[in-house]
Specification:
By secondary structure, the chain is of the alpha/beta class. It has 6 helices and 7 strands. Among the domains are: 101 residues, no CATH class; 94 residues. Helices cover 58% and strands 17% of the residues. A 7-stranded mixed barrel has the order 1-4-3-2-6-5-7. A hairpin with a 2-residue loop joins strand 2 and strand 3.
């Protein structure tokens, strides 16, 4: 009797294990069917090569559904992609759907992106059985557009270069290069003269800087000399006035001396005043144009016919 009991236990264990295996398989196979899904459509105006039925639909990288059907649109040359998306996912009116190709394998999926909180939820339009999601450009389409634009620009540049490089233009470029070569040769031959000229110019600028540093001292000396001459002239004037006073009170002898001496004194005073005015003009000229010390007074431009 005892061996028969062991067989019964083993049989019950195998039976229960089989039932559990079938239950798990059914749950894995039909678990998605028991989930609530909403159907959406998107009309692609590009090739959907690599996309297949039951391909995943992802929202910002998270799988939220699958592709139910692929067909050409009866009203336009577009691909009609029907998708089942989890009902808990909020699809907004500004949500976009694009084709996402996985690397070099060529397997494609639908990627949803966009959708702001302020945008209302997407609903079916009149004449459409399901809400229609707007298509977005895939990476392949953007790359293809960029490459096409680049090729077009390169063709345009090539055409412009071809139009530019005519025989006449090539001859002109050759002539320009020859002139540049001659100029460089001449400059190489005059290298020593250029070095000497640069050294002379450096010496000149150094001397000009030194002279400009001494200008304030020169102005001060000129002002001091003018002041001294003005003081001397004032003293001579005072002496002359005193001499006239004494002559008026001194008699004929002094009048005779004053008549022969005072004119000379007055002439000396006049010359001293003129010398003072000359120094003042020199000081004003140096303040207006300090370069006159180095270069001399500037000459006016010659008039017509001169």
């Amino acid at each position: 009797m005892e061996p028969r009991v062991h067989y019964v236990i083993v049989g019950l264990f195998v039976l229960l294990l089989g039932i559990a295996t079938v239950g798990v398989s059914l749950w894995l196979a039909f678990g998605e069917v028991m989930h609530d899904y909403l159907t959406y459509r998107v009309y692609m105006n590009e090739s959907v090569s690599g996309l297949f039925i039951d391909a995943p639909v992802k929202y910002r990288g998270v799988q939220v559904g699958r592709v139910r059907d692929l067909a050409l649109s009866p009203d336009s040359p577009e691909v009609q992609v029907t998708m089942d998306i989890d009902a808990t996912v909020k699809i907004k009116e500004d949500t976009l759907a694009k084709l996402d190709v996985q690397g070099v394998t060529g397997i494609a999926s639908i990627e949803l992106y966009g959708g702001s909180r302020e945008s209302p939820e997407l609903t079916a339009r009149p004449g459409e059985p399901y809400p229609v999601i707007r298509p977005g450009q895939s990476l392949f389409t953007r790359v293809d557009s960029a490459v096409s634009e680049l090729v077009g620009n390169l063709n345009m540049v090539a055409n412009d270069l071809h139009a530019l490089l005519t025989p006449q233009t090539r001859d002109r470029f050759t002539h320009i290069l020859q002139n540049v070569e001659q100029l460089s040769t001449a400059m190489a031959e005059q290298r020593a003269a250029l070095g000497t000229g640069i050294a002379d110019f450096s010496t000149f600028t150094h001397n000009a800087a030194t002279a400009s540093e001494r200008m304030p001292e020169l102005f001060a000396r000129v002002d001091t000399a003018a002041t001294s001459i003005q003081t001397l002239a004032d003293e001579m004037t005072a002496v002359t006035r005193e001499a006239r006073t004494k002559l008026g009170a001194g008699g004929d002898t002094l009048q005779t001396l004053g008549g022969s001496t005072l004119p000379e004194v007055e002439a000396l005073v006049t010359e001293m005043r003129q010398l003072t005015a000359s120094f003042q003009r020199l000081s004003e000229r140096l303040e207006e144009d300090p370069r006159a010390v180095l270069y001399g007074p500037q000459l006016d431009a010659p008039g017509p016919g001169e």
